[in-house]
């Protein structure tokens, strides 16, 4: 049994989903491990991880609209507003999605379904550099 | 340290929770590993996993009613509607629950609490065959 | 590769977040493992786990207010009400957050970001003793 860790950076350009499937699966392939457990960790409190349909881009528009309605950015709604009107909604949207994902690796690939993509979900309006931590435990 | 993987199918009959605790714990017992980490992965984007009270069936009615209100199936609400009015709500309900669960295994069983049950949460109206991927890493 | 498990109790005093970062990171340090995967499991159906900003206490007030509005405690709203008006909302708030978290351990510490804290999120009004299960797999 061996383990590997890795960190990489995702540049976001405001709110929305950024696909990270390829950098993640490429790294898994590079480790040479074929069976194991992959963990993806997002060490931030105003962006998160999600698994989502990777086919139709309008899905992402619907996601954006849904989260704007579910966790509104609204003046006076939050006590914690010193870091901007999008900061507290960002924390809440992070709580409602995932900071980490652990996925079985089988035949050298994360066991994602045909339509599943891995995404960083940026909740802040301004562009950010976001770090992703990867951990893989398994056998060749 | 050893690892095992397994896949099994769950037949759903429309929206709602389907208990998967027994097929999962039975497989863990069959592996013979007594201490380790179990990961359950749901490789779909319109059903998900959840941990929920396993005692009172009315809990499941309340869950259904809550998610219908939180993520309505409503004509004209979503841009992505080509796969039916329940498809985009299914993606959103999946995002708000889990695609994967990792649970410590102690004394040969997942460390679930007395009232915790594992469920597949089907979000589509039509019956589906859903695959579940299991991974267990541990020692005898 | 070695593994360790541990259980500890958190006393809650009604609804809200209780910080558990220190008991978790202290136990990781005691195991002597420096690289691995930490899993935190909450074996209850009316409290959950969340990762949240650890800096400004008003964040916790906003979280409380948001979840009261998202999942109201309201007479007549839920069928499952025999265990009190806060019980069904507690199950739903648990579903919308996490029962488990798996975090890479690097250099002897969970790879949390600067602002990330680990919290038990109590959803019941009455004080409770809550158990947390820890599992760590890794190398010295």
From TrEMBL, chains A, B, C:
Q: Which Gene3D superfamilies match?
A: YjbQ-like
Family annotation (Pfam families): YjbQ (PF01894)
Matches recorded under InterPro entries: UPF0047_YjbQ-like, YjbQ-like_sf
Q: Where are the transmembrane segments?
A: none
Family membership noted in the UniProt record: Belongs to the UPF0047 family.
Q: What is this protein called?
A: YjbQ family protein
